[in-house]
Design a protein that fits this description.
single chain; mainly beta; SH3 type barrels; 3 domains; elongated
Length: 224
């Protein structure tokens, strides 16, 4: 071993990045292992613990690495550098612990949103995409995720705010006006700026109307 060489010791669930000065390739190494750092190598990222996403939480990673057909093996270029999707983001769900490949960046770790039966989450599409259930979304479109349930975030979406059901008490009525053109839960087309209906009842929850509440409609409650 040369005098300039050093020995790097990694414990379990620790990682580091090693840069080869000759070809400028950065390598990810994970513990447990002992690795000799040669004189033509350096550590652009020192020994770091794995990043942990608790159960019931999620994280967003910028510049995620490219995976092979099995969804696990990283894809490398001809020099051995792991490829990344520059400028893109990836959502990773808990519970998991993982290292970051070179160029990857952990943006946020946050608990997932759980909605009660009388709650809905207003979600806005950031780009055109097709959801997992086959629904086509357009950039800027707002829609409602209704409870009870846990909202699973996507990089194509932005969660805006949680709305709660409106209860109509005896002697009151509600008039709804669509803020956007959409199809409600009953399959009926609602056009923008059109009055949907007026309701008079002893007690009603607007969640029964599917998307007809929150940012999809405006409403006013009056008495008679």
């Amino acid at each position: 071993m040369q005098a300039q060489d050093t020995l790097l010791r990694l414990k379990p669930y620790e990682y580091a990045h090693i840069l080869n000065k000759n070809n400028n390739v950065t390598e990810l190494i994970v513990g447990p292992q002992a690795r000799v750092i040669a004189s033509d190598e350096r550590l652009p990222k020192p020994v770091t613990p794995f990043h942990v996403v608790p159960r019931g939480s999620y994280c967003i990673v910028e510049n995620p690495h490219v995976r092979g057909g099995d969804g696990v093996t990283p894809v490398r270029d001809r020099d051995g550098q792991v490829k990344v999707r520059l400028g893109e983001r990836e959502v990773r769900l808990g519970s998991t612990a993982f290292p970051l490949y070179p160029e990857e960046k952990l943006v946020v770790v946050s608990p997932m949103k759980f909605l009660r039966q009388d709650e809905g989450l207003v979600v806005q599409a950031l780009c055109n995409y097709t959801s997992s259930d086959g629904v086509k979304r357009m950039a800027g479109e707002r829609f409602l995720f209704t409870g009870p349930g846990t909202y699973c975030p996507r990089v194509e979406e932005e969660a805006r705010e949680i709305c709660r059901a409106v209860l109509i008490m005896p002697g009151h009525a509600i008039r709804l006006s669509a803020l956007e053109t959409f199809t409600d839960r009953d399959g009926k087309l609602r056009k923008k700026e059109r009055t949907i209906s007026s309701y008079r009842t002893r007690l009603i929850s607007l969640l029964r109307l599917g998307k007809v509440f929150g940012k999809c409609v405006s409403y006013s409650v009056t008495s008679w």
